[in-house]
């Protein structure tokens, strides 16, 4: 009987000789860090989503995909709008690396790297965000069914149109329009 890899053990998944997670964890030194990284990614992408993303890649690229997913997830926690690439482009890559180190040590990635005004750890998971009340009220007809009003479109007579727009002629004129691309 072979012992499960640290990734499969933390996911409580059966591990076998052709495990997709085992080669992905070889670049991480300590078993605790391997478990922390796998658990973090499973929480971020979902267990099935993580396994699907890894198995969709060629076997020789699976460790690079795992590492890329880890950096992107940490980047999204630190900078939700632009992620790891936004941190790289703005010269703040050290914040992403610090978040990855925090995940590998078992702490939350935004404890020490995110600014004070960033959302808390619990609010980054969209599954726990309550729906906002938009203030819209359903309009119901007499039978109780929800009524969606149709837009009202009216045709204007030519004499009414000439009163609204006195400078325009009442007969139809042809308008030639040209579209061109312009960069400003």
UniProtKB/TrEMBL annotation:
Where does the LOB domain lie?
Answer: 3-109
Similarity remark: Belongs to the LOB domain-containing protein family.
Q: What is this protein called?
A: LOB domain-containing protein
Q: What is the lineage of its organism?
A: Eukaryota, Viridiplantae, Streptophyta, Embryophyta, Tracheophyta
Under PANTHER family, the record lists: LOB DOMAIN-CONTAINING PROTEIN 38 (PTHR31304), LOB DOMAIN-CONTAINING PROTEIN 42 (PTHR31304:SF64)
Domain of life from the UniProt record: Eukaryota
Could you state one GO biological process linked to this protein?
regulation of gene expression
Which InterPro entries did the record assign?
Answer: LOB (IPR004883)
């Amino acid at each position: 009987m072979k012992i499960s890899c640290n990734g499969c053990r933390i996911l409580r998944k059966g591990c076998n000789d052709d495990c997709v997670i085992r080669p992905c964890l070889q670049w991480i030194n300590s078993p605790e860090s391997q478990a922390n990284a796998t658990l973090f990614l499973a929480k971020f992408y979902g267990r099935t989503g993580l396994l699907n993303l890894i198995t969709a890649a060629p076997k020789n690229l699976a460790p690079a995909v795992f590492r890329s997913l880890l950096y992107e997830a940490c980047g999204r926690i630190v900078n939700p709008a632009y992620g790891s690439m936004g941190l790289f482009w703005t010269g703040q890559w050290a914040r992403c690396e610090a978040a990855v180190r925090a995940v590998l040590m078992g702490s939350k990635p935004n404890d020490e790297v995110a600014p004070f005004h960033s959302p808390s750890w619990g609010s980054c998971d969209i599954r726990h965000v309550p729906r906002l009340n938009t203030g819209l009220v359903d309009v119901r007809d007499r039978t109780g069914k929800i009524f969606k009003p149709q837009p009202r479109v009216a045709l204007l007579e030519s004499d009414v149109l000439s009163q609204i727009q006195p400078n325009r002629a009442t007969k139809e004129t042809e308008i030639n329009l040209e579209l061109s691309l312009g960069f400003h």
